[in-house]
Amino acid sequence: MVHKKGFTLIELLVVISIIGLLSTLGAVSLNSARQRSRDARRVADMKNLQTALELYFDVNSVYPVEASAVSLAVTANKNILCSSSASFAGSCAGGNTYMTLTTPAAPGCSDAVSVANVAENYSYISADGSTYTVTFCLETGVGAFASAGDRTLTPAGIQ
Description:
Blueprint: H1 9-60, E1 66-72, E2 80-82, E3 87-89, E4 97-100, E5 114-115, E6 118-119, E7 122-126, E8 133-138, E9 149-154, E10 157-158
Antiparallel strand pairs: 1-7, 2-3, 2-4, 5-6, 7-8, 8-9, 9-10
């Protein structure tokens, strides 16, 4: 009886299929973990921003005034909360820096926040400085915010 060494075509196809299935499951799991990580970062950013805005309010008796919605931290021109500019700016010369924002990748929300028809991470508005609204979007939800979609930060907290 002659024994041939090697694998049959069926054995090779089964092994390749199993490897493909495992790598697909790994990629999907990794993508989901990345989305949750970005959402956790967004919620942490909002809590830090709320603290910075309250410090700003304590010193200046008003929140930074932006009559129309501005995009925060997407570009370098609105990523620093500064006392000398009385609002968000690209740099802070001669004033107190309350916070510097850097944002995670833009969320994949179908109802993403938009300023001037451009999907953004964080949108800030305060018409008269007595209150403010920051709108942001979660991709999948995280922690107490279990569902994806738009959220708002006000002086009362995140809703």
